[in-house]
Amino acid sequence: MTLARCTALLALLAPGAALAHPGHLAGLAGHDHWVAGAAIGTAIALGLWAGLKERGKRRKREETEDATEEQSA
What we know:
Layout: H1 3-12, H2 23-30, H3 33-72
Helix pairs in contact: 2-3
C-alpha cells in the first residue's frame, strides 16, 4: 500500500470525523439538556469518589498487612 493510500485510509478512520462540533454544547444552556449534563457530571464525581474511597481502603489494608508482618518478624 502506498503512503498516499495509507494516509487517506487513516484520515477516513480518524475519530475526529465522528465528533460533534462544539456548537452542540451551547444547546445545553437553552434546553432541558442541562439536566443530562448535570447527570453526567454527577456520575463522573461519584465514580471519582468511589475510586478514591477504594484506594484509601486498599492503602489502609496494605499498611495493616505491613504492620502485621513487622510484628511477626
